[in-house]
Design a protein that fits this description.
By secondary structure, the chain is mainly alpha-helical. Helix content is 77%, strand content 0%. It has 3 helices and no strands.
């Protein structure tokens, strides 16, 4: 095995580790965004508005370039947080004193 081949294998392993770390970190970011949205939004609907306001936009023309795909992953993390906040709000018991 040449030095160049060994270097390429190391780089590929680093890349695979990076992909795995990104997958694991995505769940942590969802939890963080839920926390921040409820703190900043004060209500469940406010939290959802905060998440939608801060969710990055996609470019008008999507060509699936790596940077656009990463932006889409970030948007998916926001979407997951929105769904969880919505479900948490909908699952709350009704206050019969209202």
């Amino acid at each position: 095995m040449t030095e160049r081949t060994c270097k390429m294998n190391k780089d590929l392993k680093d890349f695979q580790n990076w992909i795995e770390k990104m997958k694991n970190d995505a769940d942590d970011w969802v939890i963080y965004l839920i926390y921040q949205s409820k703190k900043n939004g004060k209500t469940y609907s406010g939290a959802m508005r905060w998440l939608n306001k801060n969710k990055p936009e996609l470019p008008g023309k999507f060509t699936a370039a790596p940077s656009e795909v990463v932006a889409n992953v970030v948007r998916s993390i926001y979407e997951e947080a929105i769904i969880k906040v919505k479900n948490e709000g909908l699952d709350r018991e009704v206050d019969n004193d209202d």
